[in-house]
């Protein structure tokens, strides 16, 4: 699954720089996570870094974006390859 940011977000700016895939950006009102780039930090860290630094715990799993660990690893590999090119 990818992660998502809920309306509880206080725009504290701590999650965006922690994302190794650059999946987090400022949306119209709160930060948002691009599910096409989110690997839940698989390939980079043992746990999602955005969840670790969020002071209001507003970053749950996205219920509509289900992915296995293998799918997340494959996405990580695609994103890593694309960055290298």
TrEMBL record:
Q: Where are the transmembrane segments?
A: none
- Record-linked PROSITE patterns: 4FE4S_FER_1, 4FE4S_FER_2
Read off the Gene3D superfamilies from this record: 3.30.70.20
Outline the extent of the 4Fe-4S ferredoxin-type domain: 1-29, 31-64
Name the Pfam families on file.
Answer: Fer4_7 (PF12838)
MF-aspect GO terms: 4 iron, 4 sulfur cluster binding; metal ion binding
Q: Which InterPro entries match?
A: 4Fe4S_Fe-S-bd, 4Fe4S_Fe_S_CS, PSI_iron-sulfur_center, YfhL-like
Q: Which GO terms describe its cellular component?
A: cytoplasm
Alphabetized UniProt keyword annotations: 4Fe-4S, Electron transport, Iron, Iron-sulfur, Metal-binding, Repeat, Transport
Q: Which NCBIfam families does the record match to this protein?
A: di_4Fe-4S_YfhL (NF033683)
Q: What is this protein called?
A: YfhL family 4Fe-4S dicluster ferredoxin
């Amino acid at each position: 699954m990818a992660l998502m940011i809920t309306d509880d977000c206080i725009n504290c700016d701590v999650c965006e720089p922690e994302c190794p895939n650059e999946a987090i950006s400022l949306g119209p009102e709160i930060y948002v996570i691009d599910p096409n780039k989110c690997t839940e930090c698989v390939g980079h860290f043992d746990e999602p870094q955005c969840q670790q630094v969020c002071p209001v715990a507003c970053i749950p799993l996205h219920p509509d974006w289900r992915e296995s660990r293998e799918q997340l690893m494959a996405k990580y590999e695609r994103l890593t390859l694309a960055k290298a090119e």
